[in-house]
Amino acid sequence: MSDTAHTFTGSSIGSTAAPARVRDYVDLLKPRVMSLVVFTGLVGVLIAPVHIHPFTAALAVLAIALGSGAAGAINMWYERDLDALMARTRNRPLPAGRVAPDDALGLGVLLSIFSVLLMAVATNFVAAALLAAAILFYVFVYTVWLKRRTPQNIVIGGAAGAFPPMIGWAAATGDVSAVGIALFLLIFLWTPPHFWALALYRSDDYRRAGVPMLPVVAGPRETKRQMLIYTLILTPVALAPTLLGAVGWLYGAVALTLSVVFIGHAVAVWRTADDETAHGPARRMFRFSLLYLAVLFAALPLDGLLGRFLDRLVG
User: Which domains occur in the chain, in start order?
Assistant: First the structure.
């Protein structure tokens, strides 16, 4: 899709829609995405070897949440033309005409600045710099540069969503360690098979909008092959927190088990025909991918809690 298709006024879509409500401005922040960002950022704080005051930790997580919401609002402002063409996004506040484009952009910019300043004041400049990098990467590298131009948009752009646990770790420690990088890589490598599973059964939406997602550009067979490759590479990365000594083998056992099941879903998708019959396995893989990441990140602090409990029991 050409860039000229992107330039239109906010009133050209949904001009008869109801005026904006508070819920519409909340929706601009992509609260479902934000919930995952907050959760993984909190885990980064919790498993860090340096323990910070709960109030400081809460401010750090709030800054991560606001930064995520800011990037989401700017993303919705820039992609409002694409959202209007896709069934799953056409009722968002901007394409539906409930929020003016300038209001969405202004909200995103203000929250971006405030979130970075809050992180710098509450924690340290390393965490603030990482948060700023995550916002800028999502807006300029993924949204503006990659999304409309390359099927590798999710692969490279996935780095933006992988920052939060590393930011949380840095908020507590003031640095970026091997464990922080491992948490970053875990989300980074999880993102392509997660989104490609969605793209397989939503390929008509992406084709209609002109977004060069891998199933649209390279076809279902190549998409399935790369999904399987990524799930295989993801397995040792999922085990890295245990191998690096940040957590114990309770987490390691959970990570290994879930990774094997994730690979099984990728194999099931690979073995289906390249037509609508693949939609069922792809949909199941997409849903499991959400469970996979949530359980892995829940297991990280739980492993630490169990370890401390056993130490006290033995001691």
Answer: 21-174 (1.10.357.140), 177-310 (1.20.120)
